[in-house]
Protein backbone atom coordinates (compact mmCIF):
# COMPACT_ATOMS: atom_id res chain seq x y z
CA UNK A 1 0.00 0.00 0.00
CA UNK A 2 0.88 3.65 -0.31
CA UNK A 3 1.04 4.98 3.24
CA UNK A 4 1.60 8.60 4.19
CA UNK A 5 2.90 9.21 7.69
CA UNK A 6 1.97 12.52 9.29
CA UNK A 7 3.97 13.51 12.34
CA UNK A 8 4.88 16.53 14.40
CA UNK A 9 8.49 15.31 14.46
CA UNK A 10 10.58 12.52 13.01
CA UNK A 11 11.08 11.15 16.51
CA UNK A 12 12.01 7.64 17.61
CA UNK A 13 8.52 6.18 17.22
CA UNK A 14 7.93 7.83 13.85
CA UNK A 15 11.28 6.51 12.62
CA UNK A 16 10.43 3.01 13.77
CA UNK A 17 6.99 2.98 12.16
CA UNK A 18 8.46 4.49 8.98
CA UNK A 19 11.17 1.82 8.73
CA UNK A 20 9.06 -1.16 9.84
CA UNK A 21 6.27 -0.43 7.34
CA UNK A 22 8.85 -0.06 4.60
CA UNK A 23 10.42 -3.39 5.55
CA UNK A 24 7.04 -4.99 4.98
CA UNK A 25 6.86 -3.76 1.41
CA UNK A 26 4.66 -0.69 1.85
CA UNK A 27 5.54 2.49 0.00
CA UNK A 28 6.02 5.01 2.77
CA UNK A 29 6.43 8.76 2.70
CA UNK A 30 6.31 11.30 5.50
CA UNK A 31 4.92 14.79 5.88
CA UNK A 32 5.70 16.87 8.93
CA UNK A 33 2.65 18.55 10.45
CA UNK A 34 3.68 22.12 9.69
CA UNK A 35 0.23 23.50 8.89
CA UNK A 36 -3.05 22.48 7.32
CA UNK A 37 -2.30 23.71 3.81
CA UNK A 38 1.06 21.90 3.43
CA UNK A 39 -0.64 18.76 4.70
CA UNK A 40 -3.47 19.14 2.19
CA UNK A 41 -0.92 19.55 -0.59
CA UNK A 42 0.97 16.44 0.54
CA UNK A 43 -2.22 14.38 0.53
CA UNK A 44 -3.15 15.71 -2.90
CA UNK A 45 0.33 15.04 -4.27
CA UNK A 46 0.69 11.51 -2.92
CA UNK A 47 -2.96 10.30 -2.97
CA UNK A 48 -2.18 7.70 -0.28
CA UNK A 49 -4.24 4.60 0.40
CA UNK A 50 -3.87 5.22 4.13
CA UNK A 51 -2.66 7.98 6.43
CA UNK A 52 -0.98 7.07 9.73
CA UNK A 53 0.02 9.58 12.44
CA UNK A 54 2.55 7.97 14.81
CA UNK A 55 3.13 11.17 16.83
CA UNK A 56 0.88 14.16 16.29
CA UNK A 57 0.38 17.20 18.51
CA UNK A 58 -2.21 18.90 16.28
CA UNK A 59 -5.49 17.83 14.72
CA UNK A 60 -5.80 16.63 11.13
CA UNK A 61 -8.15 18.93 9.18
CA UNK A 62 -11.72 17.57 8.78
CA UNK A 63 -11.58 17.72 4.99
CA UNK A 64 -8.67 15.25 5.08
CA UNK A 65 -10.00 12.75 7.62
CA UNK A 66 -13.44 12.80 6.05
CA UNK A 67 -11.96 11.82 2.67
CA UNK A 68 -9.19 9.45 3.83
CA UNK A 69 -8.86 6.95 6.63
CA UNK A 70 -6.43 8.56 9.07
CA UNK A 71 -5.10 6.37 11.89
CA UNK A 72 -3.91 8.20 15.01
CA UNK A 73 -1.49 6.49 17.40
CA UNK A 74 -2.50 7.47 20.94
CA UNK A 75 -0.08 6.46 23.76
CA UNK A 76 -2.84 5.37 26.10
CA UNK A 77 -5.25 2.46 26.57
CA UNK A 78 -8.63 2.32 24.86
CA UNK A 79 -10.82 5.09 26.24
CA UNK A 80 -7.94 7.27 27.39
CA UNK A 81 -7.97 10.76 25.93
CA UNK A 82 -5.84 13.84 26.30
CA UNK A 83 -2.39 15.22 25.42
CA UNK A 84 -0.50 13.96 28.50
CA UNK A 85 -1.29 10.27 28.63
CA UNK A 86 2.13 8.98 29.70
CA UNK A 87 2.54 11.76 32.23
CA UNK A 88 -0.63 10.60 33.95
CA UNK A 89 0.42 6.97 33.75
CA UNK A 90 3.61 7.70 35.70
CA UNK A 91 1.92 10.19 38.05
CA UNK A 92 -0.74 7.68 39.07
CA UNK A 93 1.75 4.84 39.47
CA UNK A 94 0.22 2.68 36.73
CA UNK A 95 1.90 -0.69 36.33
CA UNK A 96 0.31 -1.37 32.95
CA UNK A 97 -0.60 0.98 30.14
CA UNK A 98 -1.42 0.70 26.46
CA UNK A 99 -1.44 2.18 22.99
CA UNK A 100 -4.53 2.71 20.87
CA UNK A 101 -4.71 3.20 17.11
CA UNK A 102 -7.91 5.09 16.41
CA UNK A 103 -9.50 6.76 13.43
CA UNK A 104 -9.35 10.54 13.24
CA UNK A 105 -12.72 12.15 13.81
CA UNK A 106 -14.26 15.36 15.08
CA UNK A 107 -13.50 14.44 18.69
CA UNK A 108 -9.86 14.52 19.76
CA UNK A 109 -8.76 10.95 20.60
CA UNK A 110 -12.39 9.91 20.35
CA UNK A 111 -12.46 8.02 17.06
CA UNK A 112 -13.24 4.37 16.46
CA UNK A 113 -10.58 1.85 17.45
CA UNK A 114 -8.65 -0.10 14.79
CA UNK A 115 -6.21 -1.81 17.15
CA UNK A 116 -4.73 -1.60 20.63
CA UNK A 117 -1.93 -3.22 22.61
CA UNK A 118 -0.97 -3.34 26.27
CA UNK A 119 2.46 -2.73 27.77
CA UNK A 120 4.04 -2.78 31.25
CA UNK A 121 5.22 0.38 33.00
CA UNK A 122 8.49 -0.37 34.84
CA UNK A 123 8.61 1.61 38.08
CA UNK A 124 12.18 2.87 37.69
CA UNK A 125 12.30 4.23 34.14
CA UNK A 126 11.62 7.74 32.92
CA UNK A 127 8.90 8.81 30.53
CA UNK A 128 11.18 9.14 27.50
CA UNK A 129 12.72 5.71 28.10
CA UNK A 130 9.23 4.22 28.52
CA UNK A 131 8.09 5.91 25.30
CA UNK A 132 11.05 4.71 23.25
CA UNK A 133 10.78 1.14 24.50
CA UNK A 134 7.65 -0.45 26.02
CA UNK A 135 5.31 2.10 24.43
CA UNK A 136 7.14 1.88 21.10
CA UNK A 137 6.83 -1.92 21.11
CA UNK A 138 3.10 -1.71 21.83
CA UNK A 139 2.60 1.05 19.27
CA UNK A 140 4.28 -0.94 16.52
CA UNK A 141 2.23 -4.02 17.36
CA UNK A 142 -0.98 -1.99 17.20
CA UNK A 143 -0.01 -0.11 14.02
CA UNK A 144 0.89 -3.29 12.14
CA UNK A 145 -2.39 -4.90 13.17
CA UNK A 146 -4.38 -1.80 12.19
CA UNK A 147 -2.66 -1.61 8.78
CA UNK A 148 -3.34 -5.31 8.22
CA UNK A 149 -7.00 -4.85 9.14
CA UNK A 150 -7.31 -1.86 6.84
CA UNK A 151 -5.70 -3.75 3.98
CA UNK A 152 -8.19 -6.60 4.41
CA UNK A 153 -11.01 -4.25 3.43
CA UNK A 154 -13.38 -6.12 5.72
CA UNK A 155 -12.58 -4.87 9.21
CA UNK A 156 -15.01 -2.45 10.83
CA UNK A 157 -13.44 -0.37 13.64
CA UNK A 158 -15.36 -0.28 16.89
CA UNK A 159 -16.43 2.79 18.90
CA UNK A 160 -14.34 3.19 22.01
CA UNK A 161 -17.33 2.72 24.30
CA UNK A 162 -17.95 -0.76 22.88
CA UNK A 163 -14.35 -1.85 22.35
CA UNK A 164 -14.29 -4.35 25.19
CA UNK A 165 -15.57 -5.21 28.64
CA UNK A 166 -14.88 -2.58 31.25
CA UNK A 167 -13.79 0.06 28.73
CA UNK A 168 -14.41 3.53 30.08
CA UNK A 169 -13.75 6.89 28.50
CA UNK A 170 -11.36 8.94 30.61
CA UNK A 171 -10.53 12.44 29.40
CA UNK A 172 -7.32 13.59 31.10
CA UNK A 173 -6.30 17.26 31.07
CA UNK A 174 -2.92 18.63 30.08
CA UNK A 175 -0.36 17.84 32.78
CA UNK A 176 0.54 21.30 34.12
CA UNK A 177 3.80 22.26 35.79
CA UNK A 178 1.82 22.81 39.00
CA UNK A 179 1.41 19.01 39.17
CA UNK A 180 5.12 18.45 38.61
CA UNK A 181 6.50 20.94 41.10
CA UNK A 182 8.62 19.40 43.84
CA UNK A 183 8.06 20.44 47.45
CA UNK A 184 11.53 19.76 48.79
CA UNK A 185 10.38 20.40 52.36
CA UNK A 186 7.78 17.62 52.34
CA UNK A 187 8.02 15.34 49.27
CA UNK A 188 9.69 12.00 50.07
CA UNK A 189 12.34 10.68 47.72
CA UNK A 190 9.98 8.35 45.86
CA UNK A 191 7.59 11.22 45.13
CA UNK A 192 10.45 13.41 43.90
CA UNK A 193 11.70 10.60 41.66
CA UNK A 194 8.26 10.01 40.19
CA UNK A 195 7.91 13.70 39.33
CA UNK A 196 11.38 13.88 37.81
CA UNK A 197 10.96 10.69 35.80
CA UNK A 198 7.59 11.84 34.52
CA UNK A 199 9.25 14.81 32.83
CA UNK A 200 12.80 13.56 32.29
CA UNK A 201 13.30 14.58 28.68
CA UNK A 202 10.40 16.97 28.16
CA UNK A 203 9.25 19.28 29.56
CA UNK A 204 11.37 18.92 32.71
CA UNK A 205 10.31 19.91 36.21
CA UNK A 206 10.32 23.68 36.74
CA UNK A 207 12.03 24.51 40.02
CA UNK A 208 13.86 27.24 41.86
CA UNK A 209 17.56 26.63 42.34
CA UNK A 210 20.27 29.07 43.44
CA UNK A 211 17.82 31.99 43.10
CA UNK A 212 16.99 31.19 39.48
CA UNK A 213 14.41 29.04 37.72
CA UNK A 214 15.49 25.82 36.04
CA UNK A 215 13.92 22.79 34.45
CA UNK A 216 15.21 19.61 36.10
CA UNK A 217 15.71 16.64 33.78
CA UNK A 218 16.05 13.09 35.06
CA UNK A 219 16.29 11.71 38.56
CA UNK A 220 18.05 8.84 40.33
CA UNK A 221 17.90 7.75 43.97
CA UNK A 222 20.84 8.21 46.34
CA UNK A 223 20.93 6.17 49.56
CA UNK A 224 24.06 7.51 51.30
CA UNK A 225 24.26 11.31 51.02
CA UNK A 226 22.07 13.39 53.33
CA UNK A 227 21.44 17.08 53.93
CA UNK A 228 18.89 19.81 54.43
CA UNK A 229 15.92 19.25 52.07
CA UNK A 230 16.53 21.06 48.77
CA UNK A 231 20.24 21.57 49.46
CA UNK A 232 22.85 20.70 46.83
CA UNK A 233 25.15 18.10 48.34
CA UNK A 234 27.66 16.95 45.74
CA UNK A 235 28.52 16.54 42.09
CA UNK A 236 29.34 13.41 40.14
CA UNK A 237 30.30 13.27 36.48
CA UNK A 238 28.37 16.45 35.68
CA UNK A 239 25.25 15.60 37.72
CA UNK A 240 24.26 17.28 40.99
CA UNK A 241 22.92 15.57 44.10
CA UNK A 242 20.08 17.28 45.95
CA UNK A 243 18.74 16.37 49.38
CA UNK A 244 15.16 15.30 50.02
CA UNK A 245 13.36 14.93 53.35
CA UNK A 246 14.39 11.27 53.61
CA UNK A 247 17.35 10.89 51.25
CA UNK A 248 18.66 12.48 48.09
CA UNK A 249 18.40 12.36 44.31
CA UNK A 250 20.89 12.78 41.49
CA UNK A 251 19.82 15.17 38.72
CA UNK A 252 21.89 14.71 35.55
CA UNK A 253 20.69 17.68 33.47
CA UNK A 254 19.30 21.19 33.84
CA UNK A 255 17.80 23.71 31.45
CA UNK A 256 17.37 27.40 32.34
CA UNK A 257 13.89 28.81 32.02
CA UNK A 258 13.55 30.85 28.87
CA UNK A 259 13.27 34.55 29.49
CA UNK A 260 10.52 36.50 27.76
CA UNK A 261 11.79 37.43 24.31
CA UNK A 262 15.01 35.54 24.89
CA UNK A 263 16.50 32.70 22.85
CA UNK A 264 15.40 29.12 23.33
CA UNK A 265 17.29 27.26 26.03
CA UNK A 266 18.49 23.67 26.01
CA UNK A 267 19.56 20.91 28.37
CA UNK A 268 23.11 20.58 29.63
CA UNK A 269 24.87 18.44 32.22
CA UNK A 270 23.73 20.01 35.49
CA UNK A 271 27.11 21.16 36.77
CA UNK A 272 27.97 22.68 33.39
CA UNK A 273 24.61 24.46 33.21
CA UNK A 274 25.08 25.99 36.66
CA UNK A 275 28.63 27.09 35.87
CA UNK A 276 29.89 29.79 38.23
CA UNK A 277 26.62 29.69 40.18
CA UNK A 278 27.50 26.24 41.51
CA UNK A 279 28.78 26.44 45.11
CA UNK A 280 31.90 24.58 46.17
CA UNK A 281 30.71 20.98 46.37
CA UNK A 282 32.60 17.72 46.73
CA UNK A 283 32.94 15.55 43.62
CA UNK A 284 31.80 12.24 45.06
CA UNK A 285 32.85 9.14 43.14
CA UNK A 286 30.37 6.29 42.75
CA UNK A 287 31.07 3.23 44.92
CA UNK A 288 33.46 0.91 43.16
CA UNK A 289 34.87 3.51 40.78
CA UNK A 290 36.90 3.86 38.62
CA UNK A 291 35.02 0.99 37.00
CA UNK A 292 31.73 1.90 38.66
CA UNK A 293 31.03 -1.51 40.17
CA UNK A 294 27.69 -1.54 41.96
CA UNK A 295 27.60 -2.13 45.71
CA UNK A 296 25.01 -4.74 46.65
CA UNK A 297 21.69 -3.20 47.64
CA UNK A 298 22.89 0.40 47.39
CA UNK A 299 20.90 2.81 45.28
CA UNK A 300 23.04 5.48 43.71
CA UNK A 301 23.76 6.83 40.26
CA UNK A 302 26.64 6.34 37.88
CA UNK A 303 26.54 6.70 34.11
CA UNK A 304 29.27 4.06 33.70
CA UNK A 305 29.18 0.67 35.42
CA UNK A 306 31.18 -2.54 35.23
CA UNK A 307 30.64 -6.04 36.52
CA UNK A 308 31.86 -9.53 35.72
CA UNK A 309 30.23 -12.91 35.49
CA UNK A 310 32.71 -15.68 34.91
CA UNK A 311 34.69 -15.00 31.75
CA UNK A 312 32.47 -12.10 30.68
CA UNK A 313 32.93 -8.44 31.56
CA UNK A 314 30.03 -6.02 31.17
CA UNK A 315 30.81 -2.33 30.67
CA UNK A 316 27.52 -0.44 30.50
CA UNK A 317 26.95 3.27 30.07
CA UNK A 318 23.84 5.42 30.07
CA UNK A 319 24.26 8.98 28.87
CA UNK A 320 21.13 11.18 28.66
CA UNK A 321 19.81 11.28 25.12
CA UNK A 322 22.65 9.03 24.01
CA UNK A 323 24.95 12.04 23.57
CA UNK A 324 28.62 11.68 24.56
CA UNK A 325 30.60 14.77 25.45
CA UNK A 326 34.38 15.02 25.41
CA UNK A 327 34.49 14.38 29.13
CA UNK A 328 32.11 11.42 28.93
CA UNK A 329 34.10 9.83 26.10
CA UNK A 330 37.30 10.18 28.07
CA UNK A 331 35.79 8.65 31.21
CA UNK A 332 34.37 5.77 29.20
CA UNK A 333 37.76 5.22 27.55
CA UNK A 334 39.41 5.05 30.98
CA UNK A 335 36.82 2.52 32.13
CA UNK A 336 37.25 0.53 28.92
CA UNK A 337 41.00 0.28 29.36
CA UNK A 338 40.55 -0.86 32.96
CA UNK A 339 37.99 -3.45 31.82
CA UNK A 340 40.48 -4.71 29.25
CA UNK A 341 42.98 -5.26 32.06
CA UNK A 342 40.60 -7.78 33.63
CA UNK A 343 41.05 -11.53 32.85
CA UNK A 344 37.95 -11.98 30.70
CA UNK A 345 37.37 -13.65 27.36
CA UNK A 346 34.38 -11.55 26.26
CA UNK A 347 33.77 -7.88 26.97
CA UNK A 348 30.24 -6.56 26.43
CA UNK A 349 30.01 -2.85 25.69
CA UNK A 350 26.56 -1.45 26.42
CA UNK A 351 23.87 -3.96 27.22
CA UNK A 352 21.43 -1.76 29.14
CA UNK A 353 18.02 -0.59 27.96
CA UNK A 354 17.38 2.52 25.88
CA UNK A 355 19.96 4.49 23.85
CA UNK A 356 23.30 2.94 23.03
CA UNK A 357 24.89 6.15 21.72
CA UNK A 358 24.11 8.99 19.36
CA UNK A 359 27.67 10.28 19.03
CA UNK A 360 29.10 13.67 19.94
CA UNK A 361 27.25 15.93 22.39
CA UNK A 362 25.82 18.74 20.27
CA UNK A 363 24.31 20.56 23.27
CA UNK A 364 27.63 20.78 25.09
CA UNK A 365 29.28 21.88 21.86
CA UNK A 366 26.66 24.58 21.29
CA UNK A 367 27.18 25.92 24.83
CA UNK A 368 30.98 26.04 24.54
CA UNK A 369 32.85 29.33 24.32
CA UNK A 370 34.43 27.98 21.12
CA UNK A 371 32.03 25.45 19.52
CA UNK A 372 34.47 24.65 16.72
CA UNK A 373 37.23 23.72 19.16
CA UNK A 374 34.84 21.74 21.35
CA UNK A 375 33.58 19.90 18.27
CA UNK A 376 37.16 19.02 17.42
CA UNK A 377 37.97 17.80 20.92
CA UNK A 378 34.75 15.81 21.14
CA UNK A 379 35.27 14.00 17.84
CA UNK A 380 38.86 13.18 18.76
CA UNK A 381 37.71 11.79 22.11
CA UNK A 382 35.16 9.63 20.27
CA UNK A 383 37.88 8.48 17.88
CA UNK A 384 40.18 7.57 20.77
CA UNK A 385 37.44 5.38 22.23
CA UNK A 386 36.65 3.69 18.92
CA UNK A 387 40.34 3.11 18.26
CA UNK A 388 40.70 1.39 21.62
CA UNK A 389 37.87 -0.98 20.73
CA UNK A 390 39.24 -1.67 17.26
CA UNK A 391 42.70 -2.49 18.61
CA UNK A 392 41.53 -4.85 21.36
CA UNK A 393 42.88 -8.18 20.11
CA UNK A 394 43.13 -10.32 23.25
CA UNK A 395 39.39 -10.94 23.71
CA UNK A 396 36.11 -10.64 21.84
CA UNK A 397 34.26 -7.36 22.18
CA UNK A 398 30.48 -7.25 21.76
CA UNK A 399 28.39 -4.12 21.32
CA UNK A 400 24.95 -4.74 22.83
CA UNK A 401 22.34 -2.23 21.67
CA UNK A 402 19.30 -2.24 23.91
CA UNK A 403 18.03 0.85 22.16
CA UNK A 404 18.69 3.20 19.28
CA UNK A 405 22.07 4.24 17.94
CA UNK A 406 22.92 6.98 15.46
CA UNK A 407 25.81 8.74 13.75
CA UNK A 408 29.07 8.27 15.64
CA UNK A 409 27.28 6.16 18.23
CA UNK A 410 26.31 3.65 15.56
CA UNK A 411 29.90 3.62 14.33
CA UNK A 412 31.13 3.05 17.90
CA UNK A 413 29.00 -0.09 17.95
CA UNK A 414 30.51 -1.28 14.66
CA UNK A 415 34.01 -1.15 16.13
CA UNK A 416 33.23 -4.29 18.13
CA UNK A 417 33.71 -7.83 16.83
CA UNK A 418 30.00 -8.57 17.12
CA UNK A 419 26.96 -6.29 17.29
CA UNK A 420 23.88 -7.56 19.13
CA UNK A 421 20.73 -5.53 18.87
CA UNK A 422 17.31 -5.64 20.52
CA UNK A 423 14.57 -6.23 17.97
CA UNK A 424 12.95 -2.89 18.75
CA UNK A 425 16.06 -0.76 18.19
CA UNK A 426 16.48 1.59 15.23
CA UNK A 427 19.85 2.49 13.72
CA UNK A 428 20.75 5.67 11.86
CA UNK A 429 24.29 4.99 10.54
CA UNK A 430 24.84 8.35 8.87
CA UNK A 431 25.98 11.92 9.53
CA UNK A 432 24.70 13.85 6.51
CA UNK A 433 21.71 15.50 8.15
CA UNK A 434 24.00 17.41 10.50
CA UNK A 435 26.19 18.56 7.60
CA UNK A 436 29.08 16.30 8.62
CA UNK A 437 31.25 13.80 6.79
CA UNK A 438 31.72 11.76 9.95
CA UNK A 439 34.61 10.08 11.71
CA UNK A 440 34.88 7.25 14.31
CA UNK A 441 36.69 5.18 11.63
CA UNK A 442 33.41 4.67 9.78
CA UNK A 443 35.16 4.54 6.41
CA UNK A 444 36.87 1.37 7.69
CA UNK A 445 34.16 -0.33 9.76
CA UNK A 446 31.00 0.33 7.73
CA UNK A 447 32.23 -0.96 4.33
CA UNK A 448 33.91 -3.85 6.13
CA UNK A 449 30.50 -4.94 7.37
CA UNK A 450 28.07 -4.10 4.58
CA UNK A 451 30.24 -3.51 1.52
CA UNK A 452 31.15 -0.26 -0.20
CA UNK A 453 27.92 0.09 -2.19
CA UNK A 454 25.63 -0.48 0.78
CA UNK A 455 27.74 1.84 2.95
CA UNK A 456 27.37 4.60 0.40
CA UNK A 457 23.62 3.99 0.22
CA UNK A 458 23.16 4.10 3.99
CA UNK A 459 25.10 7.32 4.44
CA UNK A 460 23.61 9.04 1.39
CA UNK A 461 19.94 8.18 1.94
CA UNK A 462 20.15 8.97 5.67
CA UNK A 463 17.12 6.87 6.60
CA UNK A 464 16.48 4.78 9.73
CA UNK A 465 17.18 1.05 9.63
CA UNK A 466 15.32 -1.54 11.68
CA UNK A 467 17.16 -4.19 13.63
CA UNK A 468 15.84 -6.88 11.29
CA UNK A 469 16.99 -5.03 8.18
CA UNK A 470 20.35 -4.29 9.80
CA UNK A 471 20.79 -8.03 10.34
CA UNK A 472 19.95 -8.75 6.69
CA UNK A 473 22.61 -6.40 5.35
CA UNK A 474 25.28 -7.36 7.89
CA UNK A 475 25.15 -4.19 9.97
CA UNK A 476 24.45 -6.26 13.09
CA UNK A 477 25.16 -9.92 13.84
CA UNK A 478 22.43 -10.94 16.29
CA UNK A 479 18.92 -9.62 16.83
CA UNK A 480 17.60 -10.39 20.30
CA UNK A 481 13.82 -10.56 20.49
CA UNK A 482 13.19 -9.51 24.08
CA UNK A 483 11.39 -6.92 26.13
CA UNK A 484 13.42 -3.84 27.06
CA UNK A 485 13.58 -5.04 30.68
CA UNK A 486 14.83 -8.50 29.71
CA UNK A 487 17.46 -7.38 27.23
CA UNK A 488 20.30 -7.28 29.76
CA UNK A 489 19.70 -10.83 31.00
CA UNK A 490 19.34 -12.07 27.41
CA UNK A 491 22.68 -10.48 26.53
CA UNK A 492 24.29 -12.09 29.58
CA UNK A 493 23.11 -15.55 28.50
CA UNK A 494 24.38 -15.05 24.94
CA UNK A 495 27.71 -13.71 26.23
CA UNK A 496 28.20 -16.65 28.61
CA UNK A 497 27.65 -19.09 25.74
CA UNK A 498 30.07 -17.17 23.55
CA UNK A 499 32.77 -17.13 26.24
CA UNK A 500 32.54 -20.91 26.72
CA UNK A 501 32.11 -21.84 23.05
CA UNK A 502 34.84 -24.18 21.72
CA UNK A 503 35.75 -21.88 18.85
CA UNK A 504 36.05 -18.63 20.80
CA UNK A 505 39.78 -18.81 21.48
CA UNK A 506 40.39 -19.62 17.83
CA UNK A 507 38.19 -16.66 16.94
CA UNK A 508 40.31 -14.36 19.09
CA UNK A 509 43.46 -15.57 17.34
CA UNK A 510 41.90 -15.06 13.92
CA UNK A 511 40.71 -11.60 14.91
CA UNK A 512 44.24 -10.60 15.92
CA UNK A 513 45.66 -11.87 12.63
CA UNK A 514 42.97 -10.07 10.62
CA UNK A 515 43.70 -6.80 12.42
CA UNK A 516 47.39 -7.15 11.64
CA UNK A 517 46.64 -7.81 7.95
CA UNK A 518 44.31 -4.80 7.75
CA UNK A 519 46.86 -2.61 9.48
CA UNK A 520 49.56 -3.62 7.02
CA UNK A 521 47.25 -2.84 4.12
CA UNK A 522 45.97 0.53 5.38
CA UNK A 523 46.84 1.72 8.89
CA UNK A 524 43.98 2.85 11.12
CA UNK A 525 45.77 6.19 11.40
CA UNK A 526 45.20 6.73 7.68
CA UNK A 527 41.42 6.34 8.03
CA UNK A 528 41.43 8.69 10.99
CA UNK A 529 43.54 11.35 9.29
CA UNK A 530 41.37 11.34 6.17
CA UNK A 531 38.12 11.56 8.12
CA UNK A 532 39.35 14.21 10.53
CA UNK A 533 40.75 16.38 7.75
CA UNK A 534 37.21 16.75 6.40
CA UNK A 535 35.70 17.16 9.85
CA UNK A 536 38.21 19.84 10.81
CA UNK A 537 37.49 21.78 7.63
CA UNK A 538 33.78 21.76 8.54
CA UNK A 539 34.21 22.55 12.24
CA UNK A 540 36.43 25.55 11.69
CA UNK A 541 34.50 27.00 8.76
CA UNK A 542 32.06 29.54 10.25
CA UNK A 543 29.93 29.31 7.11
CA UNK A 544 29.58 25.53 7.13
CA UNK A 545 25.94 24.36 7.39
CA UNK A 546 26.89 22.24 10.42
CA UNK A 547 26.83 25.25 12.73
CA UNK A 548 23.34 26.39 11.80
CA UNK A 549 22.04 22.81 11.75
CA UNK A 550 23.51 22.18 15.19
CA UNK A 551 22.02 25.35 16.64
CA UNK A 552 18.59 24.51 15.23
CA UNK A 553 18.79 20.94 16.49
CA UNK A 554 19.67 21.73 20.09
CA UNK A 555 17.09 24.52 20.30
CA UNK A 556 14.43 22.34 18.66
CA UNK A 557 13.71 24.92 15.96
CA UNK A 558 10.67 23.91 13.97
CA UNK A 559 11.60 23.17 10.33
CA UNK A 560 10.00 25.24 7.61
CA UNK A 561 9.25 22.24 5.40
CA UNK A 562 9.49 18.46 5.30
CA UNK A 563 12.95 17.27 4.18
CA UNK A 564 12.85 15.83 0.67
CA UNK A 565 14.50 12.55 1.70
CA UNK A 566 11.59 11.85 4.06
CA UNK A 567 8.87 12.82 1.61
CA UNK A 568 10.12 10.33 -0.92
CA UNK A 569 12.09 8.02 1.33
CA UNK A 570 11.24 4.47 2.23
CA UNK A 571 13.05 1.38 3.43
CA UNK A 572 15.11 -0.73 1.03
CA UNK A 573 13.00 -3.01 -1.10
CA UNK A 574 10.02 -0.68 -1.37
CA UNK A 575 9.43 2.15 -3.80
CA UNK A 576 9.10 5.79 -2.74
CA UNK A 577 5.67 7.25 -2.26
CA UNK A 578 5.41 9.91 -4.95
CA UNK A 579 1.81 9.87 -6.14
CA UNK A 580 -0.35 8.12 -8.73
CA UNK A 581 1.07 9.98 -11.69
CA UNK A 582 4.55 8.55 -11.13
CA UNK A 583 3.49 4.99 -11.86
CA UNK A 584 4.86 3.87 -8.47
CA UNK A 585 1.64 2.20 -7.30
TrEMBL record:
**Which residue ranges does the record assign to the Formyl transferase N-terminal domain?**
36-137
Q: Where is the Formyl transferase C-terminal domain?
A: 178-257
Q: Which residues form the signal peptide?
A: none
Per UniProt, the ranges with Polar residues bias are 559-585
**Do you know which InterPro entries this protein is assigned to?**
ClpP/crotonase-like_dom_sf (IPR029045), Enoyl-CoA_hydra/iso (IPR001753), Formyl_trans_C (IPR005793), Formyl_transf_N (IPR002376), Formyl_transf_N_sf (IPR036477), Formyl_transferase-like_C_sf (IPR011034), HoxX-like (IPR047180), NiFe-hyd_mat_HypX/HoxX (IPR009188)
Which is one GO molecular function term here?
A: catalytic activity
Spans traversing the lipid bilayer: none
Q: Domain of life here?
A: Bacteria
Q: Which ranges of the sequence are coiled-coil? A: none
What name has this protein been given in UniProt?
Answer: Hydrogenase maturation protein
Amino acid sequence: MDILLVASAFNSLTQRVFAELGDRGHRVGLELALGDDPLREAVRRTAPDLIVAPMLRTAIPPDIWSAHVCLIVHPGPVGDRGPSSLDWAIHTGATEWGVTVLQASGEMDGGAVWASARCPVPATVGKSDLYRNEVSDAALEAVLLAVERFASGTYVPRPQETSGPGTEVCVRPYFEQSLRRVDWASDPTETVLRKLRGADSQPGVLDGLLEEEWYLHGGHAEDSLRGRPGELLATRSGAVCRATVDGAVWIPELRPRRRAGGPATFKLPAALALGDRLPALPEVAAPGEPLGERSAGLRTWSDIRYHEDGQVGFLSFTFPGGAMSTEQCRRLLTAYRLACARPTTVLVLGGSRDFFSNGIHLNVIEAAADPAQESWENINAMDDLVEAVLTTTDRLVVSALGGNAAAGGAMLALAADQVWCRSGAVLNPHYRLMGLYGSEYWTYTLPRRVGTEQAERLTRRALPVTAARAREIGLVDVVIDSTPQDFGSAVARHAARLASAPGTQQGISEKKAARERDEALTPLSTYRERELARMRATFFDPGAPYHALRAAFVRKVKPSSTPDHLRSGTSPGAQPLTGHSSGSL
